[in-house]
UniProtKB/TrEMBL annotation:
Function: Part of the Sec protein translocase complex. Interacts with the SecYEG preprotein conducting channel. Has a central role in coupling the hydrolysis of ATP to the transfer of proteins into and across the cell membrane, serving as an ATP-driven molecular motor driving the stepwise translocation of polypeptide chains across the membrane.
Organism: Lipingzhangella rawalii
EC number: 7.4.2.8
Name of the featured protein: Protein translocase subunit SecA
CDD domains (alphabetical): DEXDc_SecA, SF2_C_secA
InterPro entries per the UniProt record, alphabetical: Helicase_ATP-bd, Helicase_C-like, P-loop_NTPase, SecA, SecA_Actinobact-type, SecA_CS, SecA_DEAD, SecA_motor_DEAD
Quaternary structure annotation from Swiss-Prot or TrEMBL: Monomer and homodimer. Part of the essential Sec protein translocation apparatus which comprises SecA, SecYEG and auxiliary proteins SecDF. Other proteins may also be involved.
NCBIfam families, per database record: SecA2_Mycobac
This protein's UniProt keywords: ATP-binding, Cell membrane, Cytoplasm, Membrane, Nucleotide-binding, Protein transport, Translocase, Translocation, Transport
Compartments (UniProt record): Cell membrane; Cytoplasm; Membrane
Ranges where the Helicase ATP-binding domain occurs: 86-245
Catalytic activity from the UniProt record: ATP + H2O + cellular proteinSide 1 = ADP + phosphate + cellular proteinSide 2
Domain Helicase C-terminal span(s) in chain numbering: 416-585
SecA family profile domain residues: 2-571
């Protein structure tokens, strides 16, 4: 198919770009006239478009695009390409825009955000981390200034006042986690003046596939002080002595571990002849399970690194340290015990929200990423979002070679070295993408042995990230990286100053070597996308061994193959097996997503009921109204003594306290229910039905109970120096709170495990 035909037809499943394309010519016609304007006049032209009507009329949209293009040319010295305008228009229409890596999405996002903001829409530009939030806001600030739009950014160390100010701006760049923590803290506010986050309007999401699909299930947590969870150090010792395959078995997906009969007998003997499955030893069994999970499923330098004496989790899809993330308390403590580290602070979960629920608060969503079509289905299913595929500005000339398959990991490694030697001799810079930290270190050591100098980028040395990436495109450079280099890194040919660009281009550009395929084709594509940016030459190739976890875990049984003398398998049936393995892995993740979503939906519905009620107490004195009607005499006496306002204040604090306390307890109950529900699986009942059957009636009395408790407390309060002493009546906020994200990926959450087990059970019985 020719380029032109493909352009007109677009991609199946994606929205048509035709309506946007029709506007490109008239937008271009405005260019000459706008160039004549002074800077102030251009700002005026932008403000002439301001108003409360949304969406833009056709003529207004043409003017908007033309003005924004001219402003970008003047302020950033970058004249937006036609394709960037297409991206901007699709975002304004609430689409997820797919634009290849390096096509300038930062600018596209800013142009669309300005377009929304001019029409009085409040935009939260959600980035994946604080660094990018700040960088992008500052980078794009001159453009916003010229358009009369105020941008701002928020970082982890922003104060409450700074946050409130930042959210008051037209466009706020904020990481998903900081936004989520602000929303959670607001949910505990006891004074309307303490609220930080305004009502949600538009979320424009960067790296949309990663946030909306990969991270959607991650809960953000607000915790409050409580006593520490102690992990059993002896248990950590005990599981260390257990033998894999003999005492315990790990399932093929690496998500579950179970003791064998031999293992159970051995543990029971070591614990002094106990019966692990008796009621009396339920705690020991729970501790044992956690220790075994920590021991058998969580690997140092794969799932976490140890730095500064702390366990730091590695983000599975990004390969970098996942700031603020921890496992659920018991497991976190078990890993700390395994590594003989001090147990970190633990607390009671005051409230939590998943990334998906956080994002779904916004009436309008849109986003951008290099890889959206591969997740078009979940985007539609969970968010009702459609994808717009924007073609590249210059055709991509990268040469993506077919995956090479080897029989053993050793042969795969030898093949890698051989290819590196070969490509390096041509002077081409090479980026090697590995699966985890340990592998990146092993490959670097091997290359070193072959006298090949290389730079390493992984979660252990992420401080050097900018410097390593800056030089990764230098003539003859070799860089070994985890998935860290896979997203958002701009590798410039010829080094940071691009001085040697011509020589690198002549040699063929950057060569990306993927050492093993990732569990999702999007991760492969993101890695490949480091080469061949903006029409640059480049190549990519993946090397795979049939013993790689991805392949081995999905292969039903050992299959025959013929391998060449270097171990390469060229049988086409095997090549398709690699693709199939990836599709199976992707399908499993999708299933996990769906299941967790079904559970969290019920919790979200209940949370909404509480929040709605809470808002009435906070803003409309509902608490006062209720205690007045529940304890009329006490209320009247107190009003006489301290006045209406003071009574209303106390009623508000007391009612909010009981609502929040009740919610924290209810959350703990729901968690317990989820964890315990597998016992019912023995009866072959649907765990979700079981969960709902218990969770729904318990919640029925929630608001009445909170009201009753508030009335009781109100009846008992005393007055000190003209104020109602609510603290003396037990109304206390947590002495300290902190935030984190729960990382439940390596083997799925408890729910996922249970669902997984249920599926296996039904398969074996069916
Ligand atoms: N219209 C333009 N003219 C010239 N340069 C541009 C233009 N738009 C963007 N760029 C440049 O292209 C480079 C890549 O931009 P950016 O980092 O926003 O890409 P990206 O699409 O976000 O890539 P990735 O998906 O890898 O994160 C930047 O150096 C930016 O300055």
């Amino acid at each position: 198919m020719t380029q032109t035909v493909r352009r007109t037809l677009g991609r199946p499943g994606a929205v048509s770009l035709k309506p946007y394309r029709k506007l490109l010519a008239p937008i271009g016609e405005r260019e000459a006239a706008l160039r004549e304007l002074g800077d102030a006049e251009l700002t005026e032209a932008a403000l002439n478009l301001a108003g409360a009507e949304f969406p833009y009329e056709r003529a207004e949209l043409i003017e908007l695009c033309a003005v924004v293009r001219e402003a970008a040319r003047r302020t950033l010295d970058e004249r937006p390409f036609d394709v960037q305008l297409l991206g901007m228009m699709a975002l304004l229409d609430g689409r997820v825009v797919e634009m290849a890596t390096g096509e300038g999405k930062t600018l596209v996002g800013a142009m669309a955000a300005a377009g929304f903001a001019l029409r009085d829409r409040r935009v939260h530009l959600l980035s994946v981390n604080d660094y990018l939030a700040r960088r992008d806001a500052e980078w794009m600030r001159p453009l916003y200034d010229m358009l009369g739009v105020a941008p701002s950014w928020i970082a982890e160390d922003s104060t409450t006042i700074q946050r409130r100010e930042a959210y008051a701006a037209d466009v706020t760049y904020v990481s998903v986690s900081e936004l989520g923590f602000d929303v959670l803290r607001d949910r505990l506010a006891t004074d309307p003046g303490d609220l930080v986050v305004p009502d949600p309007d538009i979320a424009l999401i960067d790296e949309a596939d990663s946030v909306l699909v990969d991270e959607a299930r991650v809960p953000l947590v607000l915790a409050g002080a409580a006593e520490a969870v102690e992990a059993d150090a002896d248990m950590a010792q005990l599981v260390r002595r257990l033998r894999p395959q003999v005492d315990y078995e790990v399932d093929s997906e690496g998500r579950n571990v179970q003791l064998t009969t031999t293992g159970i007998e051995r543990v029971e003997a070591e614990l002094g002849g106990v019966d692990l499955y008796s009621e009396e030893y339920a705690d020991s069994l729970a501790q044992l399970n956690l220790a075994l999970h920590a021991h058998a499923l969580l690997k140092r330098d794969v799932h976490y690194v140890i730095s500064d004496g702390e366990v730091k989790l590695i983000d599975e899809s990004r390969g970098r340290v996942a700031m603020l993330q921890r496992w659920p308390d018991g497991l976190q403590a078990a890993v700390e015990a395994k590594e003989q580290l001090q147990a970190s602070e633990t607390g009671e979960i005051l409230d939590s929200i998943t990334v998906q629920a956080l994002v779904l608060r916004y009436p309008t969503l849109c986003g951008m990423t290099g890889t959206a079509m591969a997740v078009a289905e979940p985007l539609r299913e969970f968010y009702e979002l459609e994808v717009a595929v924007i073609p590249p500005n210059l055709p991509c000339v990268r040469n993506d070679h077919a995956t090479r398959l080897y029989a053993t990991p050793e042969e795969k490694e030898d093949a890698l070295v051989e290819q590196v030697l070969d490509i390096h001799e041509q002077g081409r810079p090479i980026l090697i993408g590995t699966q985890d930290v340990a592998e990146s270190e092993r490959i670097a050591a091997r290359l070193d042995k072959e006298n090949l100098d290389c730079a390493v980028l992984n979660a252990k040395n992420d401080a050097d990230e900018a410097a390593v990436i800056a030089e990764a495109g230098t003539y003859g450079a070799i860089t070994v990286s985890t998935q860290m280099a896979g997203r958002g890194t701009d590798i410039r040919l010829g080094g940071s100053d691009m001085a040697d660009r011509e020589r690198v281009v002549a040699a063929g550009g950057l060569y990306v070597l993927g050492y093993g395929r990732y569990p999702s084709s999007r991760l492969d594509d993101q890695l490949r996308g480091r080469a061949g940016r903006q029409g640059d030459p480049g190549s990519s190739r993946f090397l795979v061994s049939i013993e790689d976890h991805l392949i081995a875990s999905t292969m039903p049984e050992a299959r025959q193959f013929d391998a060449a003398s270097d171990g390469e398998i060229t049988d086409p049936a095997w090549a398709s097996a690699v693709d199939r393995a990836q599709r199976i892995a992707e399908g499993q993740l999708m299933e996990l997503h769906r299941n967790t979503w079904r559970y969290s939906k019920l919790i979200d519905v209940q949370r909404e009921v509480v929040l709605e009620h809470r808002a009435k107490v906070l803003h409309q004195d509902l608490g006062d109204e209720q205690v007045r009607s529940d304890c009329p005499e006490r209320h009247a006496d107190l009003v006489d003594e301290v006045g209406e306002d003071e009574v209303a204040r106390a009623a508000r604090l007391i009612t909010l306290y009981h609502l929040d306390r009740g919610w924290t307890d209810h959350l703990a109950f729901l968690n317990q229910l989820r964890e315990g529900i597998h016992l019912r699986m023995l009866g072959r009942r649907d765990p979700l039905d079981e969960f709902n059957a218990d969770a729904v009636p318990v919640f029925k009395g929630f608001l009445d109970q909170a009201r009753e408790r508030a009335a009781q407390t109100f009846a008992e309060v005393s007055v000190t120096d003209g104020t109602i002493d609510v603290a003396a009546a037990g109304v206390k906020r947590p002495s300290s709170t902190w935030t984190y994200m729960v990382h439940d990926r390596p083997f799925g959450s408890d729910i996922d495990n249970i669902v997984g087990k249920a599926r296996r059970l039904s398969r074996s019985s069916g």
